[in-house]
Amino acid sequence: MPTPWGPMLRSIPAWAAIWTMALQGGVFLAFLTKIPTYLSTVLKFEMKENGVLTALPYLLSWFLSFPFGWSCDKLVSRGYLSLTAARKVYNSISHVGSGVAILALGFCNDPNTSVVLLILSIGVMSASYPGVQANFMDLSPNYSGTIFSISNFLSAVCGVFGPIIISFIVTEKGSVSQWRTVYCLLSAVMFLSNLVYVFYGSAEVQPWNDPSDNHNKIRGTKTDEEKEEGEKLASIT
User: What sections of the protein cross the membrane (predicted)?
Assistant: First the structure.
């Protein structure tokens, strides 16, 4: 089955999911590479403490992924939320929650509170697992791997340029004001990417998921399912 590149690349819901995940990935990778520097130069933690604190956000992210996934499934299966609404709600928990924590981190002067905000900013991102990261399978079961790969590639690109941009902003590693600028920028990325997803995201299967059906409709030929249905009706009559 050939990949329907044209319809896929013109799909607004697909691009909403692609860019939302890519920008989140860029923020995640920026934190991954810059957290140790921030902890040592601004919060003045020793190397041993630094290593432990750097791991805690990702441990919390792993732990929270279970209740987030379970609760999302329950809300959808019991009819409290449509699948599209659930994807947007959980992605908003991820992006808005993380964005608020990152923004607060930029204006926090207490080291202990800063550590808590730092841990929460990454930990709450796991709500995107039942959010945008599961959305690719909704949009196209047949081509979810393709669109996920596009998003993953763009996420890697953002992850490369993110630390470079931060290095241009933070010229003095111990400068609180420069790190504040970084955190304001990262929180803005989280807020705006979620806004795009809320407005343009969808969990509906896209028409280009099964291009053979569209091709058959254009040619006026029947699909296998339609042929089987016709044979059943013929056998009854």
Answer: 12-32, 52-70, 90-108, 115-132, 152-170, 182-200
